[in-house]
Amino acid sequence: MKYTFACKDIGLDCGFKTDAKTKEELMPKIAAHAKEKHGMDTIPPDVMKKVQAAIKEKKGLL
């Protein structure tokens, strides 16, 4: 199983996409991108809800 996230899925005009084997591995990648490219030192709660909802679960290998 793998998990995927794309900024466009939360309404941002951004081509960032990432994936990982677990949500726990995915979140640091998302947080680092949010800080580097979107200037978010921390992800606000309302944005975090959108991020959580946009994470997709896919069967298969990475």
General description of the model:
The protein is α+β, with helices and mostly antiparallel strands. The protein has one domain. A three-stranded antiparallel β-sheet has the order 2-1-3, covered by helices on one side. The longest helix is centred in the middle third of the chain and has 16 residues. The chain is globular. The N and C termini lie close together (8 Å).
Characteristic terms for this protein:
alpha+beta; 3 strands; 42% helix; 19% strand
Oligomer: single chain
Instruction: Quickly count the helices.
Output: 2
Low-confidence runs of at least 5 consecutive residues: none
Averaged pLDDT, please? 93
Structural class: alpha+beta
Radius of gyration: 11 Å
Which helices and strands occur, and which strands form pairs?
Blueprint: E1 2-6, E2 17-20, H1 23-38, H2 45-54, E3 56-58
Antiparallel strand pairs: 1-2, 1-3
InterPro entries: DUF1059
Organism: Candidatus Parvarchaeum acidophilus ARMAN-5
Protein name: Small metal-binding protein
